[in-house]
Design brief:
alpha/beta; six-stranded mixed β-sheet; four-stranded mixed β-sheet; 6 helices; globular
Length: 223
């Protein structure tokens, strides 16, 4: 129920003629459904994953979908997060769509994040590993470099109900890194200095995001 309420609140930010980035994950799915119900005129949609694209088709929004290369701007991006720190640094990528999410979310003029209260943390990561999307050919090298430079454990993601590594929509692998403690915002750029790293799930550059939080009592507040 909380995700449905968050989704309906987020739809209020959508205006006629906007280009809207569709996030990925369970909360983003509720937003896509709510957006279909709202039927705002003239809205174009840029999905961040095949999952979001398929759902948009299923709920009648298929004719509004556009790839990122086909739009000149993104007015609004709406997405969820796995963890949100007090300074609005986000941890994302448990669902594997972090690279496309970051491109769309960072390009957006306005970014709205939808989370339940339990996802608010002091610093990231608190309960989840830091996902790192990597070139498949270099995954072991990347994992070793992360461990040598920063400590902790970096492991190839192999869950997700399939045999072998999890493969992203971009054809890449994901290395999940459990650091020895919380990380700072600078880790976002530092990780990309390792050859083979394409992107990480640390989103530290959108401190201007509107974070809508669903509280246990059913209310929604803004961080």
């Amino acid at each position: 129920m909380s995700k449905t309420l968050l989704a309906r609140e987020a739809v209020r930010y959508v205006k006629s003629g906007m280009v809207v980035g569709l996030g990925s994950g369970t909360t983003a799915r509720e937003f896509i459904k709510a957006l279909a119900e709202a039927d705002v005129d003239g809205v174009l949609l840029v999905p961040t994953s095949a999952d979001s694209e398929v759902l948009a088709h299923e709920v009648g929004l298929g004719d509004r979908l556009r790839p990122m290369w086909a739009v000149d701007r993104v007015d609004l991006a709406v997405d969820g997060a796995d963890e949100v720190a007090r300074d609005k640094t986000l941890l994302k990528g448990r669902g594997g769509a972090l690279l496309r999410e970051k491109i769309v979310d960072y390009a957006a003029e306005r970014f709205v994040v939808l989370v339940d209260e339990h996802k608010l943390v002091e610093r990231i990561p608190a309960r989840n590993p830091v996902p790192v999307e990597v070139l498949p050919w270099a995954w072991r090298f990347v994992a070793r470099q992360i461990e040598r430079r920063y400590g902790g454990a970096a492991r190839l993601r192999t869950d997700g109900g399939k045999l072998g590594p999890v493969v992203t929509d971009n054809g890449n692998y994901i290395v999940d890194w459990v650091p020895p403690g919380p990380v700072g915002p600078s880790i976002e750029e530092e990780l990309k200095e390792i050859p083979g790293v394409l992107e990480s799930g640390v989103f530290a550059k959108r401190r201007d995001a509107v974070v809508l939080v669903a509280r246990p009592d059913g209310s929604i507040t803004q961080l």
